[in-house]
Each structure stands twice: as structure tokens, then as C-alpha cells.
Amino acid sequence: EIVAYDANEISYLTRCHVTYRIGGKMISEPNAAELNSMVAGDLVFIAPCGSKPDQFGEQHCSFPSVIEFNGTPTCAAAAIRDIELESPCRGEERRTRPLFADERGMPYTYGTLNRWLHLVLAHLIGPAAAAAFSWHSFRIELAIALREAGCPD
User: Fold this and answer.
1) What are phi and psi of 8, to 5 degrees?
2) Which of 17, 22, 30, 127 has a CA that sits 20 to 30 A from residue 96's CA?
3) Pairing status of strand 108-109 against strand 3-4
4) In angstroms, how far is CA 58 from the centroid of its own chain?
5) In whole angstroms, how large is the CA radius of gyration of the chain?
6) Strand partners, 107
7) How far apart are CA 8 and CA 96, in angstroms?
8) What is the Cα–Cα distance from 25 to 4, expressed in whole angstroms?
């Protein structure tokens, strides 16, 4: 959940959803020195947030996503760490600051991410074919692929 659906409700990941395990120590409000000390094997945990179908984050995803830091340029854990380093956030502000935000610090909208998806797909497969896809359709395709691979519900 990385987009805002309602301006009056937080339904997206915020900084408080992120916890780090750095050097074996769990840290919910890391400072720059701790973040810069990350080495291969350290972890980033992203706890679920409430969403439209699961308002308390307990039904569809009751466990955190775990991302291992490996220090490579494409490391997702490093990207999360870099968000913290570029825009530090402490205390109560972590409860409201979006993890993924635009240049104004506002959470992304579905429309914005859908436009970006269309631009990427139009470049890769052409505008006509790209028009048939959205983030929602990718979610459906992923569910089908997981079911066909025999993954449990």
C-alpha cells in the first residue's frame, strides 16, 4: 500500500512501518551512523498497514516483508535506507510521513503511479498494448501465477 486513497486517512506505508535489524540489533528510529553501518545480511522489515480490504493489516498480510541488505546498486533494502538518509524522520512524525513520497513529501496517488506504469509499458511494448494494463491487472496476474505455481492461499 503505497498510495493515498483518502486525504483524511492514512492508508499507505509510513516510516513507522519500517524497522531495521542492523548488526543484530532491532532499530525503529535509525540515525545516520546506524544506517551507514549496514552490511550484507542486515535486514529491513516493512510491517503491513491498513488497506481498503484489510483495515487493520491482519487478514491479508499479518506479517512483515523482510528485505535483506546486500549493498548492491539494485538492493531494495539500500533504497529504503537511502530514503531515511535523504529525509530523516524521528518521533511521532514517523507515524504520518509516507515511506514513498513525491517531491513535496506527499504520498503518491494511484493515478500518478498508473501514468508512470503506462509510460514504461508504452516504451517497452507500445502504447496500444500498454493501454490494456494497470497495477490492478498486474495484481490479478500475480495471483493467477502464484495459484498455478501451487502456492497456498
Assistant:
1) -95, 0
2) 22
3) parallel
4) 17
5) 17
6) 101
7) 11
8) 32
Q: Which residue in the block uniquely carries the three cell numbers 497456498?
A: 152
- Mean pLDDT, contiguous 10-residue spans, the chain (153 residues): 69 90 96 97 87 57 84 92 94 92 86 88 91 79 82 76
Distance CA 94, CA 99 (A): 9
- Asked if residues 32 and 22 have their Cβ atoms less than 8 Å apart, the reply is no
Strands 65-68 and 43-46, sheet pairing: antiparallel
First to last CA, the chain: 19
Backbone angles phi, psi at 107, to 5 degrees: -65, 150
Residue 60 gets which letter from DSSP? S
Three cell numbers at 125?
Answer: 511494448
Contact indicator for 29, 19 with CB cutoff of 8 Å = no
Spatial distance between the Cα atoms of 1 and 3, rounded to a whole number of angstroms = 6
Q: What is the pLDDT of residue 142?
A: 72
Grid cell for residue 81: 535506507
Alpha-carbon distance 16 to 12, whole Å? 11
